[in-house]
Design brief:
Elements: H1 3-18, E1 31-36, E2 39-45, H2 54-62, E3 70-73, H3 87-94, E4 98-101, H4 113-120, E5 124-127, H5 131-137, H6 139-147, E6 151-158, E7 163-165, H7 177-188, E8 192-196, H8 197-203, E9 219-223, H9 234-237, E10 244-249, H10 259-266, E11 269-273, H11 283-292, E12 297-300, H12 304-312, E13 318-323, E14 333-334, E15 350-358, E16 361-368
Parallel strand pairs: 3-4, 4-5, 6-12, 6-13, 8-9, 8-12, 9-10, 10-11
Antiparallel strand pairs: 1-2, 1-3, 7-14, 13-16, 15-16
Helix pairs in contact: 3-4
């Protein structure tokens, strides 16, 4: 097998792994390709809900053809007993003779153990192929394991001059239908959609994925310190059938009356977190609670105060902007709340990764510098 062949098969495994983004949390979205004598005999991606793992899907597809094969896996095969035995053991039992991985798994339950099991069984192991691409794909899983928080994408759909609504609050629609469909595609590859309480009250959103067929819907998360939310709105009406998580303050007096019991009766899951000195929910603790509950990738759609608090805390990993060709002027509502900046050096910086037209608008993607 040449280095070019190895890179080509790993690229295929990476593309298979991306299919699981948003659907497999708290597990990583892994891809696996089995190759024997220059022929692909098995392909797998981690299945919805995180089981079975990509390696087992590929091995099942290959059957006896896995004996003597090379496996290309985007993350180190697991070495611990969970709902199923370790994937490293399954590869040994299937007769795989060479395993090429992109990354070592930092999960303490694995952390080199999968590679060690394979080597101990006489399997040739090589790691680090396409590692930079794999790290980008696995950023949510890696952050959850190593830093206790999910990967955060902040989406802003604005006018040319950075406004999200007119002075009277009119905002539908600043961007066109193609941009709105792209937003649904982005929701689809994240575990959860996050908004602030003000946005929930003003827009009465569903925060679901539409027009993509029968898909696993993201968790809907609302950060509302006092749970001052409409119990007759669309989120409330669907809390029992589509996951709704509410993050609120944990101090005495943060909640209004019996709001917690009301929302729990509707089917929502509640997460109390500390409140920061400015009266906002502490952003690091907010994300920490979501990570502890299993989330690896969160898609934040505002509002301005929540977005600003995440940016101030350095907790936004990617910005996705949709800019429309209209201007609303200084009286329009800004996309972000106050950041308290005195100098440009204090402003959070991002690196442009992508820019392209989407319908009549422009989509631009920025990653943390």
């Amino acid at each position: 097998m040449t280095a070019g062949d190895d890179a080509r098969y790993m690229a295929l495994a990476l593309s298979l792994g991306r299919r699981g983004l948003g659907h497999v949390w708290p597990n990583p979205a892994v891809g696996c390709v089995l190759v024997r004598e220059g022929r692909i005999v098995g392909r797998g991606t981690t299945q919805t809900g995180g089981r079975p793992h990509a390696e087992r899907v590929a091995l099942a597809q290959a059957g006896p053809a896995a004996r003597g094969a090379t496996a290309y896996v985007t993350l180190e095969p697991c070495a611990h007993h969970g709902q199923t035995p370790p994937c490293a053991d399954a590869m040994v039992e299937a007769g795989v003779v060479r395993v090429v991985t992109a990354l070592e798994d930092p999960d303490p339950r694995v952390s080199g153990g999968g590679h060690s099991r394979l080597r101990a069984a006489g399997v040739q192991v090589e790691t680090g192929l396409c590692a930079a691409t794999a790290e980008r794909d696995q950023a949510g899983f890696l952050l959850r394991v190593t830093r206790g928080r999910p990967f955060v994408t902040l989406k802003l759909a604005t006018s040319f001059d950075g406004r999200i609504a007119t002075a009277t609050g009119e905002s539908r629609w600043i961007t066109g239908p193609a941009a709105r469909r792209q937003v649904h595609a982005l929701r689809l590859c994240h575990d959860a959609v996050l908004i602030g309480g003000g946005t929930a009250r003003a827009d009465d959103p569903m925060l679901d994925v539409r027009d993509f067929g029968a898909v696993r819907q993201p968790v809907r998360v609302v950060a509302a310190r006092q749970l001052a939310l409409n119990t007759d709105g669309r989120l409330a009406r669907t809390a029992g059938t589509q996951p709704l998580w509410l993050v609120h303050g944990n101090r005495a007096g943060d909640l209004r009356g019996g709001s917690a019991a009301t929302w729990e009766a509707l089917g929502a899951r509640l997460f109390p977190v500390p409140v920061g000195p400015g009266g906002q929910l502490a952003p690091a603790e907010l994300l920490g609670a979501l990570a502890e509950a299993g989330l690896t990738r969160v898609f934040c759609e505002g509002g301005g105060a929540l977005a600003a608090s995440l940016l101030q805390a350095g907790l936004v990993d990617r910005l996705v902007g949709f800019t429309a060709g209209l201007a609303l002027g200084a009286e329009g509502q800004p996309a972000l709340g106050a950041l308290g900046l005195d100098t440009l050096a204090e402003a959070p910086r991002f690196r442009l990764s992508e820019a392209r037209p989407v319908g009549g608008d422009v989509m631009h993607v920025w990653d943390r510098a």
